[in-house]
Amino acid sequence: MKVPITWLKDYIDFTNETELMDKLTFAGHMQDGPPQEIAGTHVYDLEIRQNRPDCLSLLGIAREAGAVLNKKVKYPQIKPYKSQVGPTRIEIADPKLCYRFNTVTIEGLKVSESPQWLKDKLKKYGIKSVNNLVDITNFVMVEVGQPLHAFDRAKIKDDVLIMRPAKKGETLTLLGAKKISLTQDDLVITDSQKPVGLGGVMGGKDTSVNRETDSIILECATYNQAVVRRTSLRHQIRTEASTRLEKFLHPKLTELALQRAVGLILEVCGGVIVATTDAYPKKFAEVSIKLTLDRLNNLGGVKFTQKQVEEILKKLELEVGPSLNIKIPYFRTDLEIQEDLIEEVLRIHGYDDIPSQLPVNPPPRSIDSMDFIREEQIRDLYAKAGLDEQITEPLTNEKKSILKPVLLENSLNADKTMLRTTLRDGLLGALTSQLKFRKNTVKLFEIGKVYFLDSKGPQEKVMLGVVTSGVEYFFIKGLVDLLNDHFESKFESSDYSIEVIEENVYFFEISLEKIGNVKIKKPLSNPPQVIFQDISLYVPTKTEVGKLIQEVLKTSSLVSKVELGEKPQVSGDKKTVFLHVQFESPDKNLTKDLTDKEKKKIVTVLEAKFKAKVR
């Protein structure tokens, strides 16, 4: 959601925009990059979560700003219009697809260039000015968060608008001249003869307004958000309208948006209202939630008083009743249960102000499943055998498959319209890519899911796939044997096959189910860490070297091996001894500092017992 600072100030007073944006960030509205400078103001782009469609409007952002700054929102003055029976007729064919459908018919207006203040507002948001009528609908959408659309009434047959599923074979030319073929899953707005708009996404070109328009039907609707989302994906059309309507907007919002838009149209474009309609088949009930302090304090880790909770909730414009019975306003469609209210209290209170404390109970024991352990052991096993792990894309367009593939309903890539039934194509693609930059020897493996259809519907299975190049057949055969050696495996030769792709390029694949829910025969241990140290000594001539070595082994538990580096050289009553000492530890983090200390300890013992001196 783009937030032009000077436009936001129409609804909330503040001076320090950096402070505001920091507080909005801590309240859950992250910035998507640094602000832009547009038309003399900073424009911030906020990441709005799927469950917060109210914040896809400047009034919604102003409400959040008011809560974190403890200030009142300045709402625009809206004068409700009077309902008026007229010639326009509307209909909702399926109330499950469209929750509410409103129209206002206006005659005698003049479509022309927008006033400068309106063009400036839209420019800051990034919307190009079209004309005063279209600009007003865009202005209201940004301000209120509810999209609207104006039809040229003269182009609507029989003054009727119907919200219904499209029929097979129907087409629609959209604004921007894109022609689409409609499906029965699309929701369209039609007149008495043909579709004139793609519900929740975009209006049609043939009924668009222009400078000659003097009468309009202004429509505003709320939809089943899933229908809008699927339609947008199906036709690969993403608009400001669909971004909002693919989320759950309350039907009451259509009233506010139409009242605001009609007031601006009459003021800027002129005209008179000749008809109003409102199709609202199933009214949404008001939502009330009971909040208990005990539940809040137990979950939140903060001891709130009832007064503190009431103050926070009122900042969010929630109506607080007796005993914390909270009436939810229409614009907060995300608040459904007590835990939602607890999150709101903690969010506005500040997550960073919640005191830290250690858990009362000990951490749980490992709950890793055998499947997870098995996969990790296979990864370790193959990594130590010199293979590189790959993670390839599950989307594909396999032309040949023994299994029936799972097709994607709305693929964003026409070349990848199904889920893979094998790891083969992905691994071969990775092999080909690596052969361009590496030597001929490439060894890759992947543990991933494949998908297929059977009589029970879509299924998935975890597979192990391996592809090699530049090694002999017996290497990849050895990888299969490695599984049987390391696990109490249940698979046999009939459970897999080694495919010869071309000379010295081999592939095999096996289901992890065939390895079974097995016990690992022996744990894989890390190779012991080894550090060598040399000790050069003068010792009395009669000193036995064997006893020196025994004393070294006895003195330090980290010494695994001692070798005589060179033949002792005798000089008078002394001789030289050179010891090559190997320090080794399978479980301790062996370092040079640690072995230096052990070496010093050994030398001290040898000096005391054998009158040795360091050379």
TrEMBL record:
InterPro entries given in the database record: aa-tRNA-synth_II/BPL/LPL, B3/B4_tRNA-bd, DNA-bd_dom_put_sf, Fdx_antiC-bd, Fdx_antiC-bd_sf, Phe-tRNA-ligase_IIc_bsu, Phe-tRNA_synthase-like_B3/B4, PheRS_beta_core
Record's signal peptide: none
A Pfam family it matches: tRNA_synthFbeta
GO MF annotation terms: ATP binding; magnesium ion binding; phenylalanine-tRNA ligase activity; RNA binding
One cellular-component annotation, GO: phenylalanine-tRNA ligase complex
Required cofactor names: Mg(2+)
Domain FDX-ACB, chain residue ranges per copy: 526-615
Enzyme Commission designation: 6.1.1.20
UniProt keyword list: Aminoacyl-tRNA synthetase, ATP-binding, Ligase, Magnesium, Metal-binding, Nucleotide-binding, Protein biosynthesis
Record's keyword annotation contains Nucleus: no
Residues covered by the B5 domain: 284-356
GO biological process: phenylalanyl-tRNA aminoacylation
Enzyme class: ligase
Domain of life where this protein originates: Bacteria
Protein name: phenylalanine--tRNA ligase
